[in-house]
Amino acid sequence: MKPVILAGGTGSRLWPKSRAALPKQFLALTSEQTMLQETVTRLKGTDSESPIFICNDAHRFLVAEQLRIQNIAHDGILLEPVGRNTAPAIALAALHATKNGEDPILLVLAADHLIKDTPAFHLAIEKAEILARTGKLVTFGIVPDQPHTGYGYIKAGDGIDNGFVVDEFVEKPDLATAESYVSSGKYFWNSGMFMFKASRYLEELEKFNPDILSVCRDAIDTESADLDFIRVDADVFASCPDDSIDYAVMEKTDSAAMVPLDAGWSDVGSWSSLWETAEKDTRGNVIVGDAILEGVNNSYINAEQRLISVIGLDDVVVVETKDAIMVAHKDKVQNIKNVVNRLKAEKRPEFEFHREVFRPWGSYDSIDNGARFQVKRITVKPGEKLSVQMHHHRAEHWIVVSGTANVTIGEKTQLVTENESTYIPIGEVHALENPGKIPLELIEVQSGGYLGEDDIIRFSDRYGRTEKKDGKA
After folding, report:
1. Which end of the chain is flanked by fewer CB atoms within 10 Å, N or C?
2. Parallel, antiparallel, or unpaired for β 2-6 and 105-110?
């Protein structure tokens, strides 16, 4: 069995924690591990091979770094040049997995789900694998514990060994319909997790959506290795139709089967769902971080950096990050997407980035700024190096706080240690490297008439970004 882990979502309903550049699957929301790491960890104890990961090109270094931290082996990180939904993404994985004549059973998982009961999950996997070996396309139906209107449903048909034939998939219902579904005992939440032979998925995709399969075949024929990553031709893949696996295959095939799953599952689709699944105090509150509550009930409070005090409110969600605070009634958190859409339309940085931005070499935190200056705290991991670059509009002053910096300015290279500084004039080619064994921390003061992150020309870069202007080197 080969897991295929889909890590391409945006998680906009969990703003301000989840941003376009750092979606929820890369955040630690339910434990000390990120959701991506949890997804892999809960596979321990199953008879599974190293997973294939699928993610957006922009998130490739996040995936690689989170796997490296946990020493997680993988069979490639497939990069989607553009998002084309789950049917093409899974087709790429299936085609990649069968290139050498193998035909593994694929376990398709989302990287951002919560599953509390791992043994129950493993048992469901075993049952699904038996059905998948017979040629079934298996989905996991979540045993509902309430009439939820935020999920699609699967209606169970006739019973078969270890599961049911799928009678039909239904869209998200209104409350009255959801109540009738749950009371009937025949309907299950659609989890978005699947298991099938790679060849069977490709056969059914060719039957019902040959255009998707044709483009994906052409794309996988162009695959090439780049560090940990597997790239396909962007222009080829961009021509692929956009469709989910549900619409493209599962709702059309006569081979769909379902295995019930009762394992404390949640798609963590909103702040209210995080409240529902977390441990609460005696007043029904969930508190993460530094918070003082007075007369507060049934609320979710998440403080990242500062003290939050909430007084006399019930059923609220308060989330604080370094650069934003979100306050909502628990029943209205779905409307966060409207805020995110406004941030995007107004091209505000809070849509895409946190104040602290992660790069393959480390991170930078924009701690202050004005009309003609900006101050950042930069952390460079041991052995890593920023690109060789220059700026047209800004000069930079670097002050080393801890560690040792190997600094190149023009033709000169020098070591800069703690409490020492150096200056990079406008237009000067420069590079920064950490040659030491501990993280390098420095303060960067930028000054100039334009301080945008796109004022960067890369001449060389060990991470393959010389063709891009995607922010601080």
Report:
1. N
2. parallel
CA angle 470, 471, 473 (to 5 degrees): 105
Q: Is 218 left (phi over 0), alpha (psi -120 to 50) or beta?
A: alpha
- The rounded distance, in Å, linking the Cα atoms of 352 and 343 is 9
CA 195/CA 213 separation, integer angstroms: 18
Residue for token digits 């994985």? 93
Low-confidence residues of the chain, pLDDT below 50? Answer: 468-472
CB-based burial, 396-429: b 16+ in 10 Å, e otherwise: bebbbeebbbbbbbeeeeeebeeeeebebeeeee
What is the tens place of the pLDDT at every residue in 116-167?
Answer: 999 999 999 999 999 999 999 999 999 999 999 989 999 999 999 899 999 9
pLDDT at residue 163, as a whole number: 95
Task: Locate the DSSP E strands across 381-425.
Answer: 388-390, 394-402, 405-409, 412-416, 421-424
Identify residue 117 by its one-letter amino acid code: D
DSSP 41-53: HTTTTS---PPEE
At residue 468, the pLDDT reads: 44
AA identity, residue 255: S
For residue 388, give the nearest of 444, 470, 465 by alpha carbon. Answer: 465
Which residues touch 85 (CB under 8 Å, ≥6 apart)?
A: 242, 243, 244
pLDDT computed for residue 464 by the predictor: 78
Side chain identity at residue 25, one-letter code: Q
The neighbour count for residue 459, using CB atoms within 10 Å, is 11
Contacts of 304 (CB under 8 A, 6+ apart): 17, 289, 320, 321, 322
Q: How many CB atoms lie within 10 A of CB 133?
A: 12
Residue 143 C-alpha from the chain's centroid: 25
Q: Is residue 46 within 8 Å of 350, Cβ to Cβ? A: no
**Which tens digit of pLDDT belongs to each residue from 387-419?**
999 999 999 999 999 999 999 999 999 999 999
Among 100, 117, 84, which Cα is nearest to 239's? 84
